[in-house]
Amino acid sequence: MESESAASIIGATTIVIGDDHPLVQAALRDALGKAMPEAAIVECLDLDAVMAAVTERAGSVDLVLLDLNMPGTHGFAGLFLMLAHHPTVPVAILSALQDADTIRRALAYGASGYIPKSLSMAAMADAIRAILDGAVWAPPLSLTDSPEAEEAEAARRFASLSPQQLRILTMIVDGKLNKQIAGDLNVSEQTVKVHVSSILRKLNVVSRTQAAVVAGRLAVDGTPPRP
Predict the structure, then answer these.
(1) Which long-range contacts (CB under 8 A, 24 or more apart) does 154-163 make?
(2) 116 three-state secondary structure
(3) Residue pLDDT, tens place only, 70-129
(4) Secondary structure (3-state) at 126
(5) Which of 4, 50, 155, 186 has the lowest CB atom count within 10 Å?
(6) φ and ψ at 84, to 5 degrees?
(7) What is the pLDDT of residues 18-54, one digit of tens each?
(8) Contact (CB, 8 A) for 15 and 42
(9) Do 48 and 72 contact (CB within 8 A), yes or no?
């Protein structure tokens, strides 16, 4: 589900917001409306809507603001999917979490910024403007440490998965069987089996259970998957 506000102006800045909290959407819309009245704001309540909105507007989306946990994704899975499908579109994380470890991981995984929801609306608008100007924005925490080797290796493995394989991996984490995954993706069960075998190989594991454990690195703060 998505909605669009602001006039469709040729050359206007287009920002896609992915967040399933209506109050957050409304507050951001109002803040950006005041700070950037010329911007076109596309509001999406789940990951599928975000993906569809960016695909529909190929080449014209300037920034995606993505919640870490909303329908269709949990943890960093949505970020990986966005970057896999649309590698040239900047994606900034919008989250209630603001611990240094989560922020470091988001930036290491390719996010163009990290915006805590605790910021004032004016500060959020400033952060968004900075990212649109090409900066990598994050709150003033100690972010100079390099990601640990283990995190870097996890990022490398996840980056080797195709967009379809990332979707299947998130479904494995949710406990879905191959038959259920095939139905959800409208593909054959044999196709799912081939993808699962490739996922296990790329993640260097031998079972779906181990793959789910490794995929737990996509989660943050122990937050469980959301439907």
Answers:
(1) 154/214, 154/217, 155/108, 155/109, 157/202, 157/203, 157/204, 157/214, 158/80, 158/109, 158/217, 158/218, 159/80, 159/84, 160/202, 161/80, 161/84, 161/199, 161/202, 161/203, 162/84, 163/81, 163/84, 163/85
(2) strand
(3) 888 878 989 999 999 999 999 999 988 888 888 989 999 999 999 988 888 888 899 999
(4) helix
(5) 186
(6) -70, -40
(7) 998 887 888 888 888 888 888 999 999 999 999 999 9
(8) yes
(9) yes
Question: Cα–Cα distances in Å, from 156 out to 93, 100, 176, 203?
Answer: 20, 21, 25, 9
- Residue 207: both structure tokens together: 């079972």
| Tally of residues, the chain | 227
Distance CA(107)–CA(33), nearest Å, equals 27
